[in-house]
Design a protein that fits this description.
The protein is an alpha/beta fold. The chain has a single domain, classed as Rossmann fold, CATH 3.40.50.450. It is 47% helix and 16% strand. It has a seven-stranded parallel sheet with strand order 4-3-2-1-5-6-7, sandwiched between helices. Helix 2 links the parallel strand 2 and strand 3. The longest helix is centred in the first third of the chain and has 17 residues. The protein starts with a strand and ends in a 6-residue tail after the last helix. The relative contact order is 0.15.
């Protein structure tokens, strides 16, 4: 894995541990030589993970729509900062630049990015790993709901299991880098349509 797209909050969250984990992940990415692709902001967990990669000598690709320059405060010292015209262009370029997706705690935008990537993996548009960091049970209620979607017959178990979930960022990164692309073709067999 050369580059990974990290989705996370533009807020630091309510507890210092969120930022500590984002920074730990950033340092680990740089140490492994994996480039960060993210939303281009300088604040919150977004800024924390990017700064940690940069401080450790790594490479960061930020992608931000012009319309968010006031709200998200673009990070001006990234290795590469791409300005795009819309959120759709942002997500498309982030996906194009990356070899996988990792979601940290975040809000509505973070969830939207996770679900779009997951949906496109399910459809076979992407053949990239997707991970969700459930640190301190942050996503417990979401994961319980997703289990219910399987129980109620709206999501197939194999599609549910396409997202790798872990509560440890380093272990989740290991799992994402060990991902085998042929699993998607098995999941996407004709009986799965």
């Amino acid at each position: 894995m050369k580059r990974i797209c990290v989705y996370c909050g533009s807020s630091p969250g309510a507890y210092p541990k969120y930022m500590q984990v984002a920074q730990e992940l950033g340092r680990e990415l740089a140490e492994r030589g994996i480039e960060l692709v993210y939303g281009g902001g300088s604040v919150g967990l977004m800024g924390g993970v990017a700064n940690a990669v940069l401080d450790a000598g790594g490479t960061v690709h930020g992608v931000i729509p012009r319309g968010l320059f006031d709200r998200e405060v673009p990070h001006r010292t990234l290795t590469h900062l791409y300005e795009v015209g819309s959120m759709h262009e942002r997500k498309a370029l982030m996906a194009e630049l990356s070899d996988g997706f990792l979601t940290l705690p975040g809000g509505i935008g973070t969830l939207e990015e996770l679900f779009e990537s997951w949906s496109w993996i399910q459809l076979g548009i992407y053949k990239k790993p997707c991970g969700l960091l459930n640190m301190d049970g942050y996503y417990d209620h979401l994961l319980a709901f997703l289990d219910k979607t399987v129980q109620q017959g709206f999501v197939r178990r194999n599609h549910h299991d396409m997202v790798l979930v872990d509560n440890d960022p380093i272990r989740l990164l290991d799992r994402l880098t060990e991902y085998q692309p042929q699993l998607v073709s098995r999941w996407m067999g004709k009986d799965e349509i």
